[in-house]
Design brief:
Leucine-rich repeat, LRR (right-handed beta-alpha superhelix); six-stranded parallel beta sheet; five-stranded mixed beta sheet
């Protein structure tokens, strides 16, 4: 607290041209000039258009408030007073969380703030602008009627819990520009049935699609390097191909999180023979498809050895000798017998 007061006092002195030692006169003058310039840049004017108030700064504008009088279908302007609308101020949608129905972002919006549209109970559709780069933590969490969102090319990251419990989402198509989907970003999105990932996706973090039980099959692309624990934990995944760029897994991490017993007849195809599985968990009746001398095959053999030693303990992971280049076999075609 004392440090904050001290900083505030020094800043106040700078802003009003307070006294400084004579020996530092030139430096102090430059500091005063810089502070005055920064202050001028931060000063804003307010403009209202279509019941949306914008704060206009020296080189950009931000959405400050969407009024209760605004229409349910909100369109964010591209520019206000000649300045590009690039961002939102905190709480911009607080007054319309129960009424906004659709949102179209302007072409210059770069980020969606943390919890910006949290719990907008009537929101059904979002159209991202062409400049959007990131979606903040819990930005759309608990928007339970959200059915459609169009992601733009240029989006690079979707942050933690961004779409948590958006239960009406059915289909997702991510742009090639997207590189990260963070922890629990789409957790509890129980309505999702189809997911199409872009070709440059590198990271899917823990629980990203946990409990999104409508997903039955996933193509992770070729450039993925990290797959977090329980990324696809649910009850209905039947086939999962782990790309060659993924070098280690924890607890068969794409699946194990809440339902270690839920993956009977699930096929996990591991493309990298050096990909290690770091812990042993109950992966009963899960088929591991991998190269003969791979780390994952050794893991499965170890699981079976444990099962032989203690049949009442951890169950075996079955192994298939199917070629690594073969498509995931259908569960109904998989023999229940364990073969090495």
């Amino acid at each position: 607290m004392k440090i904050k007061k001290l900083i505030a006092a020094v800043t106040a002195l700078v802003l009003v041209g307070g006294a400084y030692p004579a020996t530092a006169e030139r430096t102090d003058s430059s500091l005063v000039f810089a502070a005055e310039t920064e202050t001028a840049a931060k000063m804003s004017q307010s403009f209202t258009a279509d019941d949306i108030t914008y704060s206009v700064y020296s080189d950009y504008a931000a959405v400050a408030e969407v009024s209760q009088d605004a229409v349910a279908d909100v369109v964010i302007a591209d520019e206000i007073d000649g300045k590009p609308v690039t961002s939102f101020e905190n709480g911009a949608f607080d007054d319309v969380r129960g009424t906004v129905r659709t949102i179209k972002f302007g072409k210059n919006i770069k980020t969606v703030n943390e919890a910006l549209l949290y719990e907008c109970s009537e929101l059904t559709k979002v159209e991202c602008g062409e400049s959007l780069e990131s979606i903040g933590c819990a930005a759309f969490a608990y928007c339970e009627k959200l059915e459609e969102i169009s992601f733009n090319e240029g989006l690079t990251v979707i942050n933690n819990c961004a779409f948590y419990n958006c239960t009406s989402l059915v289909s997702l198509e991510f742009p090639d520009s997207l590189t990260e989907i963070k922890t629990s970003a789409f957790e509890m999105c129980t309505g999702i049935k189809e997911v199409k990932f872009g070709k440059n996706l590198e990271r899917i973090e823990a629980g990203a699609f946990c409990d999104s039980d409508g997903i039955t099959e996933v193509d992770l692309g070729e450039n993925l390097t990290y797959l977090g624990s329980g990324a696809f934990s649910g009850k209905n995944i039947k086939c999962l191909v782990i790309p060659e760029g993924v070098t280690s897994l924890t607890d068969l991490c794409p699946l194990y999180f809440k339902y270690p017993m839920a993956y009977r007849d699930c096929v996990i195809k591991i493309m990298n023979p050096e990909c290690g599985i770091l812990n042993t968990v109950n992966t009963k009746d899960c088929v591991i498809v991998s190269a003969d001398d791979s780390s994952s095959r050794k893991f499965a053999e170890f699981q079976n050895e444990r099962a032989e030693v203690n049949k009442k303990g951890i169950a075996a992971s079955r192994i298939t000798k199917k070629a690594i280049t073969q498509k995931c076999p259908q569960p109904a075609l998989i023999s229940p017998t364990f073969t090495v």
